[in-house]
Design a protein that fits this description.
Elements lengths: L3 E6 L13 H18 L4 H6 L2 E12 L8 E12 L2 E10 L4 E13 L10 H6 L24 E4 L15 H10 L3 H6 E10 L10 E9 L2 E10 L2 E12 L4
Antiparallel strand pairs: 1-3, 2-5, 2-7, 3-4, 4-5, 6-8, 7-10, 8-9, 9-10
Helix pairs in contact: 1-4
Length: about 250
């Protein structure tokens, strides 16, 4: 069972007003670690570009148990659990320097033609380079099938910045979570921590697009479930669900 590890020391600019690592940066550190992993295997962007390949993220399933603070060190590990046609399955876990679990995630990626954006079957020789195992981090897989049918109570327009665009010439996947959080009530943000995040990406957002975030919130005892849909006109770009728990005031 081979895993790839990368250490990070958290800078202040990756933390929020409470001095804890922002939720979107947890996803960013994980995605960054996967990039270092494939680079170490000789399958980085230079190699992918030769064959007009690109990896697109299809889904996040994330559980967060605790948040590290600025200047603390965290270790992110990642590994692949398998492949199916053009899908690849990748796991992550983030731990503190004293080996306490902070967050874990399961993800699905799609190999596409970087020009046509159509899925490409993952070459057998590429699969053989990865060392896979069956240690899955998050068994949950939220069903987003009915997310287009909900009556969303809030809508927020998004203005895309040039800095939001990544090397695949579309909005970076972490920005979608930022948009969801920006459309969430301050009362939830100030009095709750994120327990879990689920995101499914449907269609990339480009610089010329003018997306909106639609949201609704359901309260159940001490937990809040927020649901999100990111759209431009009649196109659904992503669905999201966040489960929040009350901050334990000591």
């Amino acid at each position: 069972m081979k895993k790839y590890y990368k250490n990070y020391v958290i800078p202040y600019y990756d933390t929020g007003t409470n001095n804890y690592l922002k939720p979107e940066m947890i996803l960013s550190y994980m995605a960054e670690t996967s990039t270092w992993h494939i680079d170490s295997l000789g399958l980085g962007n230079d190699t992918l570009d030769k064959y007009n390949y690109a990896w697109l993220l299809n889904r996040w399933e994330v559980d967060i148990s605790d948040y590290p603070r600025a200047k603390e060190e965290v270790i992110v590990s990642t590994w692949t659990t398998g492949f199916n046609k053009f899908y690849a399955y990748r796991e992550f876990i983030m731990k503190s320097s004293d080996n306490m679990e902070l967050a874990r995630a399961s993800t699905i990626w799609i190999l596409v033609d970087s020009i046509t954006k159509k899925p490409k079957r993952i070459p057998t020789e590429m699969i053989h380079i990865f060392s896979t195992n069956n240690e899955k981090m998050v068994e949950r897989k939220v069903d987003f099938k009915h997310y287009n049918d909900y009556l969303y109570s809030e809508e927020k327009n998004i203005y895309i910045r040039k800095s939001d665009i990544d090397n695949n010439n579309h909005v970076n996947n972490v920005k979608y979570l930022e948009w969801m959080l920006d459309s969430t009530d301050d009362d939830i943000l100030n009095n709750h921590n994120i327990k879990s995040i689920s995101i499914e990406y449907k269609k990339e957002v480009l610089y010329i697009d003018k997306p909106s975030v639609h949201s609704l919130f359901k309260v159940d005892n001490s937990e809040i479930t927020s649901k999100y849909k990111i759209t431009t006109e009649n196109i659904d770009h992503a669905y999201g669900q966040i489960i929040w728990r009350e901050i334990d005031v000591k």
